[in-house]
């Protein structure tokens, strides 16, 4: 069967400034929470490799953009580092940063690659964290001013803006499950962080529209379709609540401009609602996006709780469901994540049926593999598993398109093996292999395959 995609489909990959640039405390850039966490607790990072060890995009940008072209990308996402552009979080702009991002944007355009620019990829400047990070409403306005600075500096050339990548991850990691700085475990503080992040998003969207910049603005959400163990009503309800917490808490405000009433009522009942101010609802309503990026890696499988909740235990989403390891599910044995390709179709169908079929695209999807050099033959990583992974997801995406989904493209995570937070280089995701010591780049088999698919806008299977 042949799978043909639209002529103007976006083929590309995604990355982020903090994971690729390097030069982490150089050329005027200030510390982020990652530099600080690594300095304080290096053992929390895989093999104690910290944020300074990247693929060095700050030096290798021209070479990397040439590789993107070789991989036949027509689009590419990276981010601007707030801590590089405005080292104190607010106030003076760093001219070195403006020069760097101008070069990158101009080079991409001259190579026929449309830049997609994200403004925040987990990299809170330490100057902002010191005053409370997203818990402090002042940071909402500081972020909005930073966003506006980006629109003014680069908006003449950048036409695809994204306010946040996976805004739920700093909430979960930093304030609920202890895998990001500042390692707090407190639901109410997490809810405040989530709420203020969405206010910051909405303020940036508002300023983008007031400034009448050309192009579009969106947000990138990691969606994890929530599947119940069975058709039993208690399992169904468990999946429904997990969906409210982990998907709709960001999806509804981004697409509908308000939170799900049921989630608000539930948090109110348990005294977990963040403090709001008059005008917040109106602001949120202005944050409805032009385009939605969907990151999809794995589904969430849940069942009703086996045991009653201890009412004295701290409030957590897991009060309402248990995680469920479905027997026979297909796993990525290296990353420990389930591979469920149909999830991509289910997400797109849900957007079509329940959210008015918004303009959207798959903004991340990918397969992390440990010790990938094992698969090297004749100087090239033979990552057939990654080819299968991408192909199977594209087949489901194609089916959603046939049924009318407004999905505009597919971006892989990621272009080149990159540093990934506390996992550092544990999981390799790239189309291009990175030798960390020599900084040498070598295209993997999957990169060659993707280049063919992108240039033919499809494949036969
Ligand atoms: C995505 C993030 O969720 O997952 C990326 O947007 C991250 O920043 C990627 O690198 C892979 O994560 P990990 O933990 O498997 O290396």
From TrEMBL:
- SUPFAM superfamilies documented for this protein: (Trans)glycosidases
| A GO term, aspect molecular function | hydrolase activity
Pfam families xrefs: Glyco_hydro_1
The domain of life for this entry's organism is Bacteria
Alphabetically sorted, this entry's keywords are: Hydrolase
Note the InterPro entries from the entry. GH, Glyco_hydro_1, Glyco_hydro_1_AS
Q: Where is the active site?
A: 364 (nucleophile)
Q: Member of which family?
A: Belongs to the glycosyl hydrolase 1 family.
Name of this protein: Glycoside hydrolase family 1 protein
């Amino acid at each position: 069967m042949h799978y043909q995609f639209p002529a103007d489909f976006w083929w590309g990959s995604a990355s982020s400034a903090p994971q690729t640039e390097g030069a982490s405390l150089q050329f005027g850039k200030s510390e982020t929470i990652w530099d600080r966490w690594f300095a304080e607790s290096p053992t929390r990072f895989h093999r104690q490799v910290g944020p300074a060890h990247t693929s060095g995009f700050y030096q290798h940008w021209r070479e990397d953009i040439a590789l993107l072209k070789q991989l036949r990308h027509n689009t590419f996402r990276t981010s601007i580092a707030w801590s590089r552009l405005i080292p104190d979080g607010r106030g003076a702009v760093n001219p070195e940063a403006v020069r760097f991002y101008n070069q990158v944007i101009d080079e991409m355009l001259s190579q026929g690659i449309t830049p997609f620019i994200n403004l925040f990829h987990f990299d809170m400047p330490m100057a902002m964290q010191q005053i409370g990070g997203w818990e402090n409403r002042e940071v909402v306005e500081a972020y909005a001013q930073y966003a506006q600075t980006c629109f003014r500096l680069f908006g003449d050339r950048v036409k695809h803006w994204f306010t946040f990548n996976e805004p739920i991850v700093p909430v979960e990691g930093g304030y609920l499950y202890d895998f990001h700085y500042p390692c707090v475990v407190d639901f109410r503080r997490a809810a405040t962080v989530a709420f203020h992040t969405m206010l910051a998003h909405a303020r940036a969207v508002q300023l983008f529209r007031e400034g009448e910049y050309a192009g579009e603005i969106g947000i990138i959400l990691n969606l994890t379709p929530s599947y119940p163990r069975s058709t039993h009503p208690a399992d169904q309800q468990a999946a429904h609540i997990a969906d409210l917490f982990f998907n709709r808490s960001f999806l509804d405000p981004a697409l509908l401009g308000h939170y799900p009433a049921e989630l608000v009522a539930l948090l109110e009942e348990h005294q977990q609602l963040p403090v709001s101010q008059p005008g917040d609802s109106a602001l949120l309503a202005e944050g409805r996006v032009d385009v939605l990026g969907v990151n999809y890696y794995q589904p969430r499988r849940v069942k009703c709780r086996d045991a009653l909740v201890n009412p004295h235990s701290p409030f957590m989403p897991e009060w309402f469901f248990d995680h469920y390891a479905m027997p026979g599910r297909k796993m990525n044995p290296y990353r420990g994540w389930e591979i469920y390709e149909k999830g991509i179709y289910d997400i797109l169908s849900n957007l079509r049926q329940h959210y008015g079929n918004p303009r959207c695209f798959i903004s991340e999807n990918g397969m992390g593999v440990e010790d990938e050099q094992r698969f090297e033959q004749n100087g090239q990583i033979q990552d057939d598993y990654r080819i299968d992974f991408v192909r199977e997801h594209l087949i489901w995406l194609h089916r959603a398109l046939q049924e009318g989904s407004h999905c505009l493209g597919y971006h892989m995570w990621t272009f080149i093996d990159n540093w990934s937070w506390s996992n550092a280089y544990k999981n390799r995701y790239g189309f291009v292999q990175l030798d960390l010591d020599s900084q040498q780049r070598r295209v993997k088999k999957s990169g060659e395959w993707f280049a063919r698919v992108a240039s033919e806008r499809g494949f036969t299977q």
